């Protein structure tokens, strides 16, 4: 497997993990520098922008207001040990301002699989708000037993954003 095939396979892994799961662990930074980890239901737009709904007074929401650089991990916790994949995402996050809610809700709730319901903009100006994270970096968990990339030891591999974008275009183009 050459380097472009490897990159394409790793990007396809990102897409598969994102598409087959509904919750991610959101990592923000507390005022004391410690991590705050929070599970949230997510939707996404083209694997570049991730959305979730949270209370503005939740600690992770406050952390984002103070430090917008976040980390996210998506994985299937129901798989057996040695059988799972994970996607790691670095991003910059913010609360979607009220002036952008109509446009952003149209994108964020275009598809809400897994029994979730879409929110209307007027529902997201009080006790709940829409948050958006723009991905700045991608990575995947390579399990030690992976048939193509495993080395016997679990590790993390970076994935180029351009490779993820190409994989997304291929995955959603009819006949591709």
UniProtKB/TrEMBL annotation:
UniProt superkingdom: Bacteria
Domain Pyridoxamine 5'-phosphate oxidase N-terminal: 17-97
Alphabetized Gene3D superfamilies for the sequence: Electron Transport, Fmn-binding Protein, Chain A
Protein name, as recorded: Pyridoxamine 5'-phosphate oxidase family protein
Source organism of the structure: Paractinoplanes rhizophilus
